[in-house]
Amino acid sequence: MSEMVNVPADAAREAPTFSQGVRDCLPTLLGYVGIAFAAGIVGSATHLSVLENALLAAWIYAGASQFIICAMLAAGSPYSAIIFTTFIVNSRHFLLCSTLAPSFVKYGLLKNIGMGVLVTDETFAVAIGKIIKKQGISARWMYGLNLSAYVVWIVSCTAGALLGKWVPSPDSLGLDFALTAMFCALLVLHLDGIKRSRLVHQLFLVFCTVFLMAVLSFFMSSYLAVLTSTLIGATIGVLTEK
């Protein structure tokens, strides 16, 4: 009666699942616990309540921005300055999402928005690593990756706020280095398995971006230097890609 549509079995099997996205996020989650815990402690030291810390983590969902917000609140900065600074720092996400967008053109607008609003530097690194290695990604996989990171971030921030009064300085536990360590690990995972010719090109781009950031930081804020050097580095990568 009804017409059957034959779908290749391999395509169905190869589509990454939600649970695979969660598993691929596990290395990132280990770093998130330390960073988010430190963010919760800093928020508590800024006299934010546990609920306010949890809402900040859920709404802003950005380590650097949360630290900046707490620092500016402690300094008595006007809300307009805090909002503007947070927007500038997070504007790099336009670049991250536009890079991932071609992999999700077959999905609807609402589904793409749902994926985009939860993309972070770390989940982007995991996703782009899959794309570069020609490993398929899907909306379900991306949701597994993003949502697991999002939930762990909120829970860890809240835990840090709850225990903040017993840990006056996250630096004493080395939690301030967690973000740097996690990005180093993500870079190594990203470069692993790349052909030698591409590896040399990727390392060249890393050097260019770091060098530009160091130079630009003398002329602008570190946040703008990171954004500008990233844009220039990406442009160099496009122009020199073979």
Summarize the structure.
It is a multi-pass membrane protein. The protein has helices spanning 9-14, 18-45, 50-59, 63-74, 79-90, 92-100, 109-116, 121-132, 139-163, 178-191, 196-216, 222-240.
General description of the model:
The chain has 242 residues and is mainly α. The longest helix is centred in the first third of the chain and has 28 residues, at 18-45. It is built from twelve helices and no strands. α2 packs across α3 (50-59), α4 (63-74) runs antiparallel to α5 (79-90) and α8 (121-132) runs parallel beside α10. The chain folds into two domains: 17-192, no CATH class; 194-242, no CATH class. The radius of gyration is 20 Å and the shape is globular. It is 73% helix and 0% strand.
Q: What's the number of domains?
A: 2
Main beta sheet strand tally, sense and closure: none
Spell out the helices and strands N to C: HHHHHHHHHHHH
Residue share in helix? over 70%
Query: What's the pLDDT, averaged over the residues?
Result: 82
Low-confidence stretches: 1-12
What portion of the residues fall into strands of 2 or more residues? under 5%
Shape: globular
How many strand elements? Answer: 0
* Structural class designation: mainly alpha
Radius of gyration: 20 Å
Q: How many H/I helical runs?
A: 12
C-alpha end-to-end distance: 52 Å
